[in-house]
Protein 1
Amino acid sequence: MPGLYFEDLPEGRVIDAEWRRTVTEADNVLFCGMTMNVARLHLDAEYMKGTEFGRPIVNSLFTLGLMIGMSVHNTTQGTTVANLGMTDVTFPAPVFAGDTLRVLTTVVGARASRSRPEAGIVTFRHEAFNQHDVLVARCGRAALMLRRPEGAPA
């Protein structure tokens, strides 16, 4: 499904990403390597056995990227001009290798752009839940979204 235009994103609309993704140990190790994050809590299983978690925690920035990425195919694919910022990023519960995540996106605000008549600014709230329906990540995201071109089907 192509992305939604500004007009398709009224405040209050909730969009289910409609798919799930199991996080693997390889995801975490590769992401930590690519971002040069060598924190023991992500990579050292022996060390983590002695913590309250008992095992490595998936890098939270991977979780953030995955959460937003999982929403793209049925919200903003091809209709985003640019991300304008992310706010209120929280990780209420840890993600572990083997967890399966699902994502809900809620439109919390939408307004026409004052400087770009072909676009509007939409504020999304993304939420990721694990296989036990525990909220593991949340963030606000503002995006500059294209308006529907004249003559394009609704």
Protein 2
Amino acid sequence: MTRVAVLGAGGGGLSAAVELTRAGYDVVLWNRRAATMAAYREAGEIAHEGVLGTGRTPVAAMTTDLAVAAAAADVLVVCLPSLAHGALFDDLAELGVRLPVVMNPGHTGAALHARQVWASRGADLPPLAELSTLTYVARVAEDGTVRTTGRARVVRAGCLPGGEEAVGWARRLFPAADPVPDVLASSLSNVNLVLHPPGAVLGLAWVEATGGAFTFYGDAMTDGVAAVMGALDLERRAVASAYGHTLPSLVDEMAAIGTVDAVPPEGPGALAAAIKGGAANSSILAPSSTLHRYYREDLPFGLGPLVALAGVAGSDVPVARSLLQLGSVVLGEEAMRAGLNQDRLGVRGWGRDELLASVRHP
């Protein structure tokens, strides 16, 4: 039986472990923190509800030892936030892992970041595919139950040259995975870098005043926030165009994923109405503080690499840079420096053509 090591026991990792187990795969679930894993290891199963069904699914094995998880697997599926990728890449490179790796999600820049980490150790990158966004909308309840309110219909799957085997695994494990020509197309298809920062930054007063006691995709989706979001989306697509890719708009990409249920005619209020009308995200509350990933991940690890790639392409992205600057004031420069910049992507001093040559397949 094919064994899949799912790395990460948050909403995405738990959802993947449940779905892949129910699909007939032998799953080993890994998480770095023993406290996160304790209840699941004791029960030997994952409680779940939502689009994956309601019940309790036994998982073949659970561990906090990465070497054990990797040694027993045929493929690794990484379901971790971007801010955890660097430490994991270091560990996998040190272990000499050569297994195919599927980043679900890769968000923006995962493959480039991984290549830089492996290169810094003088090692070859294993076959690695990045998905543009997580294949689930999921949250973990206080009792440990994973509530999966949506499953993506389409996400973009890209790889660096030599990573084609990992894209094959991504398509086999997650039928929503749609191959794209290179990792610039998959990275720049990450909807979260457009969807989260405007509402998080512009809604900060409300977040701090209420502790996040409002819906992020409903109450906070005002016309003003949507206007900034629309401008940021144009910048994202302009950067993609500079690299030769024509990408769908935010609302069209969300419709493909399944988090927008209907695309209204273009016009004032259309973007806000489309996002508010999506059932999968409708009950998700706003961040309770700036410790939330909408701040700590989507600014330095979403907008950060967008600005880095824009710089290589010679594209101007004033809205993205403005939101990053505000984020630096709120989170502190140290938090922002921890994100993905040109150095961590391995593209410092590169030009557009040099970057394209490094990601394009023969």
Protein 3
Amino acid sequence: MKTRWFGIVSVFLGLMAASLTAVLIWMLWEYVPRASVRYGILAVCAGIFLLAGLWAALQRYQIGQFADDVCETLDAAIAGRQPGNFHPYEDSLTSKVQGKLMQYYDIMREGRLQSQRDKQTLQSLVSDISHQVKTPIANVKLYTGILQRRDISEEKREQFLHTMEAQINKLDFLMQSLIKMSRLETGTFILCPLEARLNDTIAQAMNTVWGSAEQKKIEISVECGAEIMVRHDPKWTAEAIGNILDNAVKYTCSGGTITIAVRPWQFYTRIDISDTGRGIPEEHYNDVFQRFYREEEVAAEEGVGLGLYLANGIITRQKGYISVKSRVGEGTTFSVYLLSFN
């Protein structure tokens, strides 16, 4: 906008100078009798006109240089490089325009990079999903084909039906976990934090693993005062704690113990979930929170490697965090830290 007005003003001043010169020449020939005076004034007017022309030419050159600098900046941005003529600390119109163009370029570049990251994440997610669902679907198809045979005994039929039901349940569990993971990663789930008793949230989480713990004769004990109040989302926090408990029950031998201890601190409320299971090597502390991660030694166990990943995502979105300490062969303690206030 400033450059356009600057060009209009330059043209206007040039026309004014030409008009004044023409008027002066006319007045000279009409009202000045002496030729020497005429030619002197004429020379002065010619000098003024020349200076005005030089000034207009200089302005035109500067505008052209400005346009060249802007075009060079745009070419550099398109090519993905820093323009060589960009001087961000100069107080000039060119530097200001170039600065704005480079800011726009940085925003667009970050958008492209984010789009590439999202594409890679989506490709990885599709690959992981296809790998996870391939086995149970193949098993269901196999058992369906076997059950369609007429020469199979009733006992075998019942056995295959039971096995196929287990595969269908596994597939259903996998799809539910994937839906939760998708909601978590895309941010489509909504946290509703409120001041609630932590004891009730832990009880809700324990309900999801009580049956499997009973089958393995695993004792679960809780140390949590009924008066402990924490601002959190009870539903999603129970989901996170339940996933950690499910992991503890799964990898604790029959007759083991799981202890839940709540310790209020000044800024955080800490929930320790300790088991007497197989333990986790220290070099895998961070790995256990990765999506679909499973150790080779436990590949035969049930699960898809999403529980701790979801738990970590849920807690971190409530401005908390999870830590882990473990000794191989002795047990593991997952510590959940929830902000005491928001």
